[in-house]
Amino acid sequence: MTTYTSVPYDFRDKPAGYAQLAQALSGLLAGELDLIANAANTAALVYDALDEVNWVGFYFMQGGELVVGPFQGKPACVRIPLGKGVCGGAASRRETLLVRDVNEFPGHIACDAASRSEVVIPLIRNDGTLLGVLDLDSPRPARFDEQDRKGLETLARIFLASLD
Ligand code: SME
Q: Which of 12, 42, 67, 153 keeps 20 to 30 A from 134, CA to CA?
């Protein structure tokens, strides 16, 4: 059985920190195909590793809308229509949305009033279907930058690859 103990990732060099985290995630998910198990462990690992995040988790496509999946943080909105909010926007556009100030994003859905910035990565399977999104919120404005986007997109790819 693979065990996981909290490792202090060093994000002073962000790309290096994400490389460490990517390696840890690959190890954590290795040999397991279950969607819920791997989503839960991905959310827990990332939430534990990153500073200044108050929500990390998944929404999965179900019946044409996003439905909340495994996450860490405060209870969240359950259903988000495609095209609504940051999550619905990233899902319908099929591209990562990095929002430096959620108050300036028209239609932002405030699940936790503490959230000030957000990044949402669409999860697109090899066959082109949209599985859902990976969503991270922070209480700090502009918490996420291009290096976070790249690092988190790599983590999302590792999560997706674990399912096949
Ligand atoms: N803020 C998101 C909703 C999900 S919560 O942040 C967990 C949005 O606007 O889509």
A: 12
